[in-house]
Design brief:
This protein has 160 residues and is an alpha+beta fold. The protein has two domains: 60 residues, Orthogonal Bundle (Arc Repressor Mutant, subunit A), CATH 1.10.10; 75 residues, Lrp/AsnC effector binding domain/regulation of amino acid metabolism (RAM) domain (Alpha-Beta Plaits, 2-Layer Sandwich). It is built from five helices and four strands, in the order αααβαββαβ. A hairpin with a 6-residue loop joins β2 and β3. The radius of gyration is 20 Å and the shape is elongated.
Amino acid sequence: MVNLVYDLDASDIAILRVLQNEGRISNVDLANRVNLSPPATLTRLKRLEKDGVIERFVAVLDRHRTGHDTLSFIQLSLSLHQHQHINNVLEQIVAMPEVLECHNVTGEYDYLLKVVLKNTQALEAFISQKLIPMPGIARLHTSLVLKEYKASMVLELEDD
């Protein structure tokens, strides 16, 4: 079996810890923070990107300030569990810009979607016009988020 865990040393972990919170930090400032030279820091950063430890750099937007006030989680069950059918449904779901995340989960439902929309009317339209008519969805359950207490993308990294 292939080991999917990447071997990170202390310097790699230091770089990643800073970047998770300050993605736009300059290489010189990053190097100073992790006690490496700027060329060594840049070399490590490029390697972490090339090797897929750093997937991409993004701007995290405040959804409320962009007019997206409705966050919900939608659980879906499929009527058929054949590979082609599952692939067709997932292809459609992941193409929907309203869907921020899609996870295959255990339990009563097959998939969990994290969906952001402007308001509850847009959520109702999304469900009734996009999800319900989709062939293969047996049932769904929607939970509307009333208040977010934590939303983070920062992974805990431990030194060995």
